[in-house]
Amino acid sequence: MTNTWILTTDERIAHLVDTAAAIEGTTTVLVVAPSAPAMGGVDRVVHLPVAEDVPAEALAVAVADLVAGAEVDLVLVPNRPAERSFAGAVAARLALPVLVGATTVAAGSAQVARYGGLSIESVSYPRAVLVLEGGAAAGSGDAPVDTHEATPAAARITSVQPATSGPANLAAARRIVACGRGFKAEEDLALARALADAVSGEIACSRPLAEGTAWLSKDRYIGVSGIHVSPEVYFALGISGQVQHTSGMSGSKVVVAVNTDANAPIFQMADYGIVGDLYEVVPAITAALS
Hints:
This protein has seven helices and 15 strands. By secondary structure, the chain is α/β, with parallel strands linked by helices. The chain has two domains: 146 residues, Rossmann fold (3-Layer(aba) Sandwich); 120 residues, Rossmann fold (3-Layer(aba) Sandwich). The strands form three sheets. It has a seven-stranded parallel beta sheet, with helices on both faces. It has a five-stranded parallel beta sheet with strand order 12-11-13-14-15. A three-stranded antiparallel beta sheet has the order 6-7-8. Helix 2 packs across helix 3 and helix 4 packs parallel to helix 7. It is elongated and about 60 Å long. The mean pLDDT is 92.
């Protein structure tokens, strides 16, 4: 029976809870937060309280101490800054491997995407730390909560400067509208945003729009060195479909592609392909879905 622990700072771990449930065994969620969220679908919650003015990373050593005393087989960590510090602390304390980018996870083994998803490597291990996308918020429930007090490292939050918009959570998105170099101007992305609104989806992009023109932030870039997603529906608008991009969205269930080039590689993996001007096609799709 696998003893799985999930390390997090909030409830955005639905994918990790589902992964642990598929492995079978016991699932414990260790939460470093001012208060413990009500969790469902797990056996218990371990709560490490942290003051509002103390960064969660200041309790990384305490997290490693708790995991070390629990005879844990598998540690799952959402791919976020604070949680990655927990992964490093646990791996260093227990001399465990850290695997990033696993596509499937089982007891004692995982399939891990390498080279930006261009190849899949089979990895076996007796115990390991896996960094995965956390997904949406886990369902609430009445799992028992054990609270442990610990002294954090000497660190304080001295100021907070909110971003103009929150970070994208593309890993949890069920529908994604991705924009490529087929868009001629930044203001034209309004066409894609209208489609995203019509399908209750998230906006994303290929690398040139994030790191070239900077029309969209880097947390919306899908590809080899960006985010890897697997939504129910993926709209690829004006994206040619080079492997640097498709490796990040190859897990999509349904792909809808719009491109003026009938020979664009994106059509090779599209379930529905439309050869046409996105400036005409996208508004028509939006109108049909509104």
